[in-house]
Amino acid sequence: MDKNFDLVVIGAGPGGYVCAIRAAQLGLKTACVESRKTLGGTCLNVGCIPSKSLLNASEMYHKAKKEFSSLGIESDNIKLNLSKMMNNKNKSVLTLTKGVEFLFKKNKITHLKGKGEVSSKNTVVVTDDSGKKTKYTAKNIVISTGSVPTSLPGIKIDEKTIVSSTGALSFDQPPKELIVIGGGYIGLELSSVWKRLGTNVTVIEFLDHILPGMDKDISSEFLKILNKQGINFKLNSKVIEVKAIKDKAVVDFTNNKTNKRERIECDKVLVAVGRKSNIEKNILDLGIKVDKQKKIEVNKKFETSIKNIYAIGDVINKGPMLAHKAEDEGIAVAEIIAGQAGHVNYEVIPAVIYTNPEVATVGKNEEQLKKENIKYRIGKFPFLANSRAKVNNETEGFVKIIAEEKTDKVLGVSIISALAGTMIAELAVAMEFGASSEDIARTCHAHPTHSEGVKEAAMAVDKRPIHF
After folding, report:
1. Of 62, 209, 343, 447, which one is the catalytic site residue?
2. What's the rounded Cα separation, in Å, for the pair 313 and 322?
3. CA max distance for the chain
4. By three-state DSSP, how is residue 104 classified?
5. Is the whole-model pTM more than 0.90?
6. Which domains are assigned to the chain?
7. What is the rounded CA–CA span in Å between residue 199 and residue 195?
8. Pairwise CA distance, residues 418 & 389, whole Å
9. Could you report the average pLDDT of every consecutive run of 10 residues in the chain (468 residues)?
10. Catalytic residue flag (residue 447)
């Protein structure tokens, strides 16, 4: 095998494999190193994709048990076969990882199997499963090694009783009692899965609200919805200790205001308190600069402090830790290396929570705009007044559009809806083109659709919604 490349990408997650494909399209001789047996990174193997499979399957199971009868669909003796559900999830993951393999072959990308380390600005050493080390030279290197789950001090994740998101995607039976530490994206999605499958779920969150960093309107409304679904919450609470005792766990926590101490015994504990950049020691040894959060510092061209070594995705100090952000960066850095002008607009990166209803946001929220002393107007429209949502029994939630007071330029949007993750794309496109709320309001939306709620919210910015 030829060991000289124009570009070696370390990590084949959404950022890395997309970067490799785009670089190959642009004529660069490209290799991609991956330590996993399969391509696709955390997202495809133990993150976004398998969790969405379980979210979809568990939602259908829940609807069949609880909602079909009221629609005139009699479905007696509905049973959960968790083994089949997991097999379906695994099959989906395998199909998609094989799909990435096919794309590598199609684009003539060399797949280097093993753990990649940067030993100099033009050298990558790959160690395979047998321990054999092979050196490869590269004119350019992209670090795209993603992130790993974090825990709390003194809490050891064993992936049996005390699990990360990886373990929570592979339970062999629904736990009777599940404690979820952390009320963010991952914690709430997996809480939804297991609640629908029969588990009693309690979420413990350090802050006094869920979804840290999101619009407070969204946070408070979504909390009401999840409470209604039967998920329990212990907000403003600090976990003191988690002990695994035989096949059970005991979680001790205190209320931040009252200092009252509580203890809950459960079958499983999911630690979902965030993720940290997956940066190997050799990166630091090379002298690549990192910030206080231990993320790699990069310039506008995604170049690190060492020339010709670039970084993207969860390892860098730009943007949120999201797969689609990493993909955009992968394309941008490949184009920059090839002499083009790659770019990522960090002001317009949508974020979605794939519960039911879904939560989606793009741009800035009220709290951020207040801090920046930007004057704004708000338009809100509830799905209770949307005809398609009404006939589909999907009336929970709303669209909230924030526009700059004088120019009417859309600055941020938040949606709670069954289709929020799909609907947010319209707003991202609008914001990318600098649209005003008036532009959206005067764009014809098909009837009857959930997206009419977007048009009505845009009209509401000017206090003229039609159906509310």
Report:
1. 447
2. 8
3. 69
4. helix
5. yes
6. 4-149+276-337 (3.50.50.60), 162-273 (3.50.50.60), 351-461 (3.30.390.30)
7. 5
8. 8
9. 94 98 98 97 96 98 94 92 98 97 98 96 96 97 97 95 97 98 98 98 98 95 98 98 94 97 98 96 92 96 97 98 98 98 97 98 97 98 98 98 98 98 98 98 98 98 97
10. yes
